[in-house]
Design brief:
The protein has a 7-stranded parallel β-sheet, sandwiched between helices. Strands 16-26-25-17-24-23 form a 6-stranded parallel β-sheet, sandwiched between helices. By secondary structure, it is an alpha/beta fold. The radius of gyration is 29 Å and the shape is globular. The termini are far apart. 30% of the residues lie in helices and 23% in strands. It has 6 domains: 96 residues, PriA, 3(prime) DNA-binding domain (GIY-YIG endonuclease, 3-Layer(aba) Sandwich); 61 residues; 184 residues, P-loop containing nucleotide triphosphate hydrolases (Rossmann fold, 3-Layer(aba) Sandwich), CATH 3.40.50.300; 181 residues, 3-Layer(aba) Sandwich (Rossmann fold); 60 residues, no CATH class; 93 residues, 2-Layer Sandwich (Alpha-Beta Plaits). Bound molecules: adenosine-5'-diphosphate and zinc ion.
Length: 729
């Protein structure tokens, strides 16, 4: 009698399942996490399906499942999600599964903690430290050793001494939970009428049960977070889990505190900076249903929730939701997919929705709940353009006199000012005054960015870095370098020269050592410890700085120049968000946009505060050109160490494109291959193909058919596919 066979999916870059025999002692069902022999090693894998008709001739060659791991099985909902994401993004299913199994190596029990408690008479000799410790432990409760030391302000040696004397004893404590249970009724905010209406509408939608998508469309500072917390509260009451996705989890200390103020405790966190142990424990607690709310970066979407009931995507328009390597997926779109598969509510929150979401809301596919006013009577900032053609800054400076005057006024009022420039480093280009030589990356088609703080010239694409040389490598003239254009570090120099004595902070991802440090700096800004903040896009996202009333955008044209079809949308969102940091509490907010093209539609819409006009125009434009969301796009990037090999592969690929018939033949466009705007990265030559298809067309299926028929890359040539691309570089 042949033994039972199951097909398992292994979390490696493979698309298909592998069959294994099930030993008698194991009782396996789809979703079970198992270990299986894979080549010479052992791998963790997931039972995907029973195999009722294994090929009998293979039976002897099949290996046995090694063991079943002690972890809850992956639910059918998550397995279907894995299959769906893999199919849509053209990734291997194994790689998508891998994102679900990021629980670290050890799924075993968590390490126990050592605790202490009162056990015997007071010691002979009393000291201040000893009495503080005994006072803390007087209630007879056990406490973790290190917590007790910290709370009483004593060293571990003091505790050990009292254990030796028999005053204290050690006990084994269960591990601290990953998160405590949030209390849905801990402290609800006093809502304004508009917030109450919005919260009631949201709760009603969620109470309907099943799949729904709601756009929570509120101006910056309207209290969207407080409103969607009510949906979270109802989900907690229903005993189900909530996931809150954030574009930049490293920056959410403020969010965690607000969550704690509402629910009495912080939520569980999920992001790349968790320690391996914490990651393993969080994964397990999510799978066991012990964690009620997870706040996480996009990867939290792939966790094995025991009973997911709600997904919130905060700042849903944020480009950081797109993963640009490995499995290329958009976490907002995939959140909607997971919500659909799991039949639960999805809430998308933004003051500047993505065009996709806006169109879905206009067409009634998504519900829209609006919060048109700021909380607490705060008004939206007034926005003005500074025409750099008329009011230019002095030579080699970047702050125009108008903006400088506004900052000065802000300082006089003891308010905060933010100068926004989305460029890290000191200067984007360095050249030799004597011969015109420019420092370029040896591996990429890019200039080296001067980072004075690090004392290096750095490539932002591959990380190549070199010290500033003393002489020009081309003409050997000494001290001949000039910096061209500004980065935040250079702006700092100018600000210190203009406003001596002001407390200045530069916030840029490359200047902080850790997430913790970044959180501290942001808290310092919120607490008013700085007068002028200079920041990259990191400061544009969701922060609430009560004393910040002036935002100056140093180069509003920066994002408009490139040929990206989303340039207008992105610039509108980014500038609207960053200016939206101003005037959120007391006083009036002002936004200044330094620009060479104040008549540009994006700038005009920002200044007129006419969001709808911008969306109307942009939607009409996308519709007439069949760009998303009115059509589909996929980009195919061919790269290789040898330019000709890459080119000939790309041309062969185009020739292999499957022919389509009928009306679709006119609508399906394959553009390229063309040299990519970033033609060389890390020593690889890059070519791009863009496929444009009608909305109703199954582009993923077409691409799969194409790849199956297409040439095999060789000689180091690589083909990367990006469905719904966000980057066009
Ligand atoms: P948004 O996300 O819409 O930009 P937030 O949710 O950050 O706005 O709210 C802006 C500020 O107003 C936050 O500091 C928030 O705590 C506060 N706030 C909003 N609604 C209330 C309320 N009903 N009671 C007290 N504070 C509120
Ligand atoms: Zn480089």
């Amino acid at each position: 009698m042949p033994r039972r066979v199951v097909d398992v999916l292994v979390p490696v870059a493979l698309d298909r399942e592998y069959s294994y025999r099930v030993p008698e002692k194991l009782d396996l069902a789809p979703g079970d996490i198992v270990s299986v022999p894979l080549g010479a090693r052992e791998a963790t894998a997931v039972v995907w399906a029973d195999n009722p008709k294994p090929n009998p001739r293979l039976d002897n060659r099949l290996k046995d499942v090694e063991d079943k791991l002690d972890a809850p099985p992956l639910k059918g909902e998550l397995r279907r999600f894995v299959d769906w994401v893999a199919s849509y993004t053209l990734s291997s299913r194994g790689m998508v599964l891998r994102m679900c199994l990021r629980m670290g190596e050890h799924l075993g029990a968590a390490r126990e903690r050592v605790g202490v408690r009162l056990a015997g008479p007071a010691p002979q000799r009393m000291t201040g430290a000893r009495s503080r410790l005994l006072e803390l432990l007087a209630d007879g409760m056990a406490r973790g050793k290190s917590e007790a030391a910290r709370e009483a302000g004593v060293t571990a040696g003091v505790i050990d001494g009292l254990i030796d004397e028999g005053t204290l004893e050690t006990v084994v404590l269960p591990p601290e939970p990953v998160a405590h249970r949030p209390d849905a009724d801990f402290k609800q905010a006093d809502f304004t009428a508009a917030q109450s209406t919005a919260a009631a509408a949201l709760k009603a939608t969620i109470a309907k049960a099943g799949y729904t998508v709601t756009l929570l469309d509120g101006v910056t500072g309207s209290g969207k977070t407080e409103v969607y917390f009510e949906a979270v509260a109802d989900t907690i009451r229903a005993g189900r889990q909530s996931l809150i996705l954030m574009p930049e989890i490293a920056l959410t200390a403020q969010f965690l505190d607000r969550f704690a103020a509402r629910f009495g405790t912080r939520p569980a966190e999920w992001h790349s900076e968790l320690s391996p142990r914490r990651r393993a424990r969080t994964w397990r607690a999510v799978a066991d249903g012990e964690v009620a709310v997870v706040v996480g970066a996009r990867s939290a979407l792939f966790l094995p929730y025991a009973d997911l009931g709600l997904i919130v995507v905060d700042e849903e328009h944020d480009p950081a939701y797109k993963q640009e390597d490995g499995v290329r997926y958009h976490a907002r779109d995939m959140a909607v997919v997971r919500g659909h598969i799991a039949r639960i509510a999805v809430v998308l929150a933004s003051a500047t929705p993505s065009l996709e979401t806006e169109v879905n809301a206009r067409r009634g596919r998504y519900a829209r709940i609006a919060l048109p006013e700021r909380f607490g009577g705060a008004r939206l900032p007034a926005i003005e353009a500074i025409d750099l053609r008329r009011d230019p800054p002095p030579p080699r400076h970047f702050i125009s006199p108008v903006l400088a005057g506004a900052v000065k006024t802000s300082l006089q009022r003891n308010e905060q000012a933010l100068l926004f420039l989305n460029r890290r480093g000191y200067a984007p280009l360095t050249l030799c005054r004597a011969c015109g030589f420019r420092f370029a990356c040896p591996n990429c088609d890019a200039w080296l960015v001067d980072h004075r703080f690090r004392r290096q010239l750095v490539c932002h694409h591959c990380g190549f870095a070199m010290p500033h040389p003393a002489n020009c490598p081309h003409c050997q003239v000494a001290n001949s370098f000039v910096a061209i254009g500004p980065g935040v570090e250079r702006l700092e120099e100018e600000v210190r020269e203009l406003f001596p004595g002001a407390r200045v902070l530069v916030l840029s991802s490359d200047l902080v050592a850790s997430v913790e440090r970044m959180r501290e700096e942001l808290a310092d800004v919120a607490a008013g410890r700085f007068d002028i903040v200079i920041g990259t896009q990191l400061v544009a996202k969701g922060h609430h700085f009560p004393m910040l009333n002036l935002v100056g955008v140093v180069d509003a044209d920066l994002g408009l120049a490139n040929g990206d079809p989303r340039a207008a949308e992105r610039t509108f969102q980014l500038l609207h968000q960053v200016v939206g940091r101003a005037g959120r509490e007391a006083g009036a907010g002002y936004g200044y946009l330094q620009t060479h093209q104040p008549e540009h539609p994006v700038l005009r819409a920002l200044i007129a505060q006419d969001r709808d006009a911008f969306y109307d125009a942009e939607i009409a434009q996308r519709e007439s050109t069949h760009y998303p969301p009115f059509g589909r796009l996929a980009s195919l990037v061919v790269s290789g160490p040898d330019k000709h090999a890459a080119e000939s592969f790309a041309r062969a690929l185009v020739r292999a494109a499957p022919k389509v018939a009928g009306a679709i033949a006119d609508a399906l466009r394959i553009l390229g291959p063309a040299e990519a705007p970033l033609a060389l990265v890390r020593g690889r030559h890059r070519l791009r193909l863009l496929v444009k298809a009608p909305r109703a067309f199954d582009l993923s299926a077409y691409l799969r058919q194409w790849l199956a028929a297409g040439p095999n890359p060789k000689g180091g040539v690589k083909l990367e596919i990006d469905v719904d691309p966000q980057s066009f570089l």
